[in-house]
């Protein structure tokens, strides 16, 4: 949504960062097309909000794009005399949108009198496995030659497993509550083979190659031998502006052109506001029944393929070492959540 309000080199940098060329291509991306359906699905909800200082006005085209494509609600606030009240209101918006899983995303002092626009989006997901798992305690090997006992899921049922050079993939489908629902979700777990592909290398492939997740989705159920996936729960948050600048987004943080978002005034036709901070927080819990996850991002703007191998008759999938996971919508291939587990007990 920020890209829709940017112009010139600022927009080009943001689109390059997002892996899209024209803005229309970004709007047609599977993840953005899915956004419009999330609130109509049993497992998901999505919320998007824009807060603009009362001294300014959102461009009508930007407000229309936000409302039509992202369901964004816009609100005028007083950042000069009511910055703290605005911060609390935005944090409440995120907490409500994530069913109270994410609190206090914006820390004290993050919103002040220099803030002119704040954009936020929040995603909630709750999926139940098509078939629940049994639970037992199993060893898990964490970095540093340490082994810990962790509550883990197991089953004797056939599973969607595929073997690839250096790693193996497991697809765990979630149950669809309605038979008419076209959108189906699943968790994909990518497990590096011991002593071959590293977790970092596998993660780089997943984030740098748009089709990597889709191309490595198992399509056939196979009988399982040993099967183990640990239960895990963690919350992770960070401020992303420095990482974004290292990846080439610089103009948006210094003298950016957001004239497509707000009108500053007759003497400043270029809308010279800049992104000051980007806060992101995610939480996920995976157990024998299913998955509950949420993620939220708030942006503050201030003024001034590999071939699949044929699996053997019985296939083991023992996630007893660090692995990569993703929650994916099957029809579009849109990734809702992506992360990795190094120690299931380090929540």
From TrEMBL:
CDD domains per the UniProt record, alphabetical: serpinP_plants
Any Pfam family: Serpin
InterPro entries: Serpin_CS, Serpin_dom, Serpin_fam, Serpin_sf, Serpin_sf_1, Serpin_sf_2
Domain Serpin: 1-344
Superkingdom of origin organism: Eukaryota
One annotated GO molecular function: serine-type endopeptidase inhibitor activity
Gene Ontology cellular-component annotations: extracellular space
Coiled coil region boundaries: none
Family from the record: Belongs to the serpin family.
PANTHER family reported for this sequence: SERINE PROTEASE INHIBITOR, SERPIN, SERPIN DOMAIN-CONTAINING PROTEIN
Protein name: Serpin domain-containing protein
Annotated source species: Triticum aestivum
